[in-house]
Amino acid sequence: MRRANYKPIFASFLLSVVTIQCMLQSSASLSVGYYKSKCPNAEGIVADAVRSAITGSGDRGIGAGLIRLHFHDCFVRGCDASVLLDGPNTEKTAPPNLSLRGFEVIDTAKSQLESACPGKVSCADILAFAARDLVVLLGGVNYSVPSGRLDGSTSSSSEAMQFLPPPFGDVSQIQSMFAVKGLTLDDMVILSGAHAVGRSHCSSFSNRLYSWNSPDGVDPSMDKNFAAYLKTKCPKNGGGDPVVDMNVVTPNKFNTRYYKLVKAHKVLFTSDQTLLNNAQAAALVNQSSNQPYTWPRSFNKAMLKMGAIEILTSANGGRIRKNCRVAN
Ligand code: HEM
Ligand SMILES: *[C@@H]1O[C@H](CO)[C@@H](O)[C@H](O)[C@H]1NC(C)=O
Ligand SMILES: *[C@@H]1O[C@H](CO)[C@@H](O)[C@H](O)[C@H]1NC(C)=O
Ligand SMILES: *[C@@H]1O[C@H](CO)[C@@H](O)[C@H](O)[C@H]1NC(C)=O
Fold first, then answer.
1. pLDDT by residue (tens digit) across 27-83?
2. Any idea where the Plant heme peroxidase family profile domain is (predicted)?
3. Which pLDDT value is given to residue 23?
């Protein structure tokens, strides 16, 4: 009788051994310095391409675009560069693509890498390196990026719809979409700080300006002056879909401003503002707003976790694409 009691304990012990082994195996497929022998200057080539893109074009906003590309890549089919594939019904063609930008920078880096070391460096790794380089160039803290990702061959707009969190979602909806990818509520709060940089189209938040279920149609959780300002940028019947900076104070600076703006009710999306509706998330928002030293390091850690989502192996279809836009 007593022995029988051990069975479930033993089974769960075995299960945890297996789980730990799987975790070790999946993290073992990425390593810092992976290209050291395969293509020694791979990271340098990406860094140069990225640097000249944001200084050359004078468009530092491209930098924000590249950080976002890595996020979109990893949330759909894992970090496999599926976001870069051209064609009908790919992720790019789905509505969450709004303003995805920076594709040409990846093309440039890739063609330089193909001349330096043909067929060696994956598009998915280029995205991960570029996101890191941009964080640094915009004023964040440097971090080592484990690499060895492989590229996929499929990209689907319906999967982009299914897995990319919408700006209209509230904290609990966004939390569950992060959980599907193995990321916690804390990871979500920390990563959302990326909204310190870049821009948004009016259509991503105009639900909060004109059609909220409130007497004046404005989301009552938005600061009144901020709402009035946004209405001048995004007129109700203005036509087109203008863009506004996420962070009007320091639009191209990778800092903790985002958290101060959340606290001040001056952020664009429902997904940003409703962080305050969850006690744990609100506490981390408050903490991060006061931690210009700690937050960038927490951000980097969370980026590494995001950058390790569902990594492909060659056994399950991973490859190194020659052209990041084509499934070759
Ligand atoms: C938490 C859930 C998230 C939602 C709902 C969300 C949604 C959005 C939306 C709607 C835009 C503006 C698109 C447009 O209208 O042009 C945007 C921009 C951006 N997002 Fe997020 N995002 C989320 C998380 C993240 C994460 C985890 C990162 C990176 C770590 C990120 C980085 C960015 C950046 C840098 C931009 C600016 C892009 C540019 O200027 O081109 N976002 N996001
Ligand atoms: C983004 O999606 C829209 C449909 O919502 C589509 O018209 C547009 O062409 C897509 N952008 C890209 C770069 O494919
Ligand atoms: C960031 O760190 C990596 C190594 O981890 C290094 O290759 C790269 O040059 C650094 N970037 C900057 C801008 O210092
Ligand atoms: C925010 O953090 C500060 C100190 O870091 C603390 O004094 C304050 O009580 C916190 N506010 C909330 C609402 O948690």
1. 448 999 999 999 999 999 999 999 999 887 667 788 999 999 999 999 999 999 999
2. 29-328
3. 46
- Domains of the chain listed by start with CATH number: 17-167+307-316 (1.10.520.10), 171-175+181-302 (1.10.420.10)
To the query of whether residue 72 is one of the catalytic residues in this protein, the response is yes
87 within ligand 2 shell (Cβ under 6 A): no
Ligand nearest to the CA of 270: 1
* Residue 200 bridge partners (DSSP): 244
CA of 256 to the centre of ligand 3 (A): 22
- How many Å separate Cα 155 from the centre of its chain? 17
Q: How far apart are CA 80 and CA 42, in angstroms?
A: 18
Q: What is the DSSP letter of 31?
A: B
Please state, as a whole number, how many other Cβ atoms lie within 10 Å of the Cβ of residue 152.
26
For residue 284, give the ligand nearest its CA.
Answer: 4
Nearest atom in ligand 3 to the alpha carbon of residue 145 is 5
Handedness of CA 74, 78, 84, 88 (dihedral sign): negative
Ligand 4 close to Cβ of residue 290 (< 6 A)? yes
Q: Is 184 in the pocket of ligand 2 (CB under 6 A)?
A: no
Rg of the Cα trace of the chain? 21
Question: What is the value of pTM for the model shown?
Answer: 0.91
